[in-house]
Amino acid sequence: MHDHCLILNRAQRPVGSWYALDTRRLLRNVVAADTLYVLHFMEEVTARLGWAWEPREVTPGRRPVMDIAGVEQELIDWSSTRRQRIEEALEGITAQYVEDHGRLPDERARHGLG
Fold first, then answer.
1. Phi-psi region of 50 (alpha: psi -120 to 50; beta: other; left: phi over 0)
2. 3/1: higher pLDDT
3. CA torsion sign, 92 to 28 to 66 to 107?
4. Which of 63, 64, 58, 67 is nearest to 107 (CA)?
5. What's the pLDDT at 1?
6. Beta 65-68 vs 53-56: how paired, if at all?
7. Residue 34: in which H helix or E strand, if any?
8. Is 93 in contact with 113 (CB distance < 8 Å)?
9. In the chain, helix, strand, coil percent, each to 5?
10. Measuring CA to CA, which of 17, 25, 40, 68 is 20 to 30 A from 77?
11. What does residue 56 show for φ and ψ, rounded to 5 degrees?
């Protein structure tokens, strides 16, 4: 299973008028927004389908991703060719980031590099 979260940059006030969201603030808090989205998504899927979840370490030392419990690693690897290509390129991209910034990328920057 693969999902995406799309956020419209407009929202409706309770009185009915519309306004634009402050996307700069949202991007500054992208990790928190992603965490809330993933938790809500998992709750909905569990409630509707009864599936269980388990953490899977994608990058050693980094926070795990939550996957549907019981899916074999072989099947995950078979369907993850895009991620494999990113991982192959990430070492060089990270080295360039260190050269440009003088430090390793933080979690937000790693997300952007990926």
1. left
2. 3
3. positive
4. 63
5. 65
6. antiparallel
7. helix 30-49
8. yes
9. 55, 10, 35
10. 40
11. -130, 130
Would you say 114 and 94 are in contact if contact means Cβ atoms under 8 Å apart? no
Q: Which amino acid is at 89?
A: A
Is the pTM above the cut of 0.85? Answer: no
**Residue whose C-alpha is closest to residue 88's, from 64, 62, 109, 114:** 114
Whether the pLDDT of residue 104 is over 70: the answer is yes
Chain-centre distance for alpha carbon 111: 8
Please name the helix (run of DSSP H) or strand (run of DSSP E) that holds residue 23, with its range, or none: helix 23-28
52-70 pLDDT per residue, tens: 999 988 888 888 888 899 9
| Mean local confidence (pLDDT), 34-53 | 93
Total residue count of the chain as it appears in this document = 114
Region 28-46: what's the mean pLDDT?
Answer: 91
